[in-house]
Amino acid sequence: MNNITAVICRIASTEGISPQEVLFEMQAAIDACYDSEDPAVQARWATMPFKCKPTPEALIAYLAEKITKQG
Questions:
Q1: Alpha-carbon distances of 49 from 44, 52, 61, rounded to whole Å
Q2: What is residue 48's three-state secondary structure?
């Protein structure tokens, strides 16, 4: 089990839902943010390497790497 899968499973366990539901909810949040018309939100997305809406796993991996590099 990789680290991202472990995180998803831990969230699912804590929330009492399935890992699939966690991924569904995360993707819904990503979609809403990605589709936002707020210029500040779009500016933030523009700083990320994604050419289309990322999956939860891709976004988690990107953010974890970014945090690791900054820490």
A1: 11, 9, 12
A2: coil
| pLDDT, one tens digit for every residue, the chain (71 residues) | 688 999 999 999 999 999 999 999 999 999 999 999 999 999 999 999 999 999 999 999 999 999 999 97
Token pair 């366990």: residue: 13
Give the other-Cβ count within 10 Å of 30's Cβ: 17
Cα distances (Å, whole numbers) of residue 71 to 56, 65, 68: 22, 10, 5
pTM, two decimals, is 0.85
Contact 59/6 with Cβ under 8 angstroms?
no
SS3 70: helix
DSSP designation for 52? S
Q: What is the DSSP letter of 60?
A: H
